[in-house]
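Q: Make up one entry.
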Amino acid sequence: MTPLMLRRLLPVAILLGGLAVFLLLGLERYFSYDLLYRHQATLTKWVAKHAFISAAAFILAYATVVAFSLPIAMVVTPVAGFLFGTWMGAGLSVIGATLGSIAVFLAARTAFRDLFRARAGAALARLEAGFQRDDFSYLLFLRLVPVFPFWLINIVPALLGMRLGRYVLATMIGIVPAAIVYASVGAGLGILIERGERPNLGIIFEWRIFLPLLGLAALSLLPVVYTRLRKPNVTP
């Protein structure tokens, strides 16, 4: 393996190494709602006293969780709602998740895009061309429908040649609805834990929420449908 290839693989190796350490050491045990509730008074007091530092720390923590694809990402946004309230918690979550997604996107593009293109050949060229024509709409659709693995959606656009600016904008817009839903769940987390209950993170799949998300996702594909249905003008 050449030094150039090693340098290209280094970012991905770091991200995968971080995930491996997290799993091997069982660090997920330190991220429980019970532990959060036990330290509720201390955390809320510190957040109120150090608003800017706590917000920046949360963004950094969320970006780290997403970048390393840690299996605790779903609980982080409710924690944001718990600590900062629904709207600020959702906003901080969107920023943190987007930054972490950028790290994965850049690492995947650096390490695998050239190799992927070389192996896939003409088939990838056709797929890439089709994706790039409407890449913003496709990515927005994938972000809005909360059934696709977040880490996978971070990687695929990088392999298909999506530009970073369009990727960032589609990501930020696409994750806003789910962030608001989860942050609103977290805003009432203290009351739930006090009652001995757990937050219903599956609420996003209830029809009253899931159907509007599907509607937004369908709207995001309208430019694609319009492009496909539009017929070129033919002059006699």
Q: What stands out?
A: Residues 3-227 form one domain. The longest helix spans residues 86-120. The chain has 14 helices and no strands.
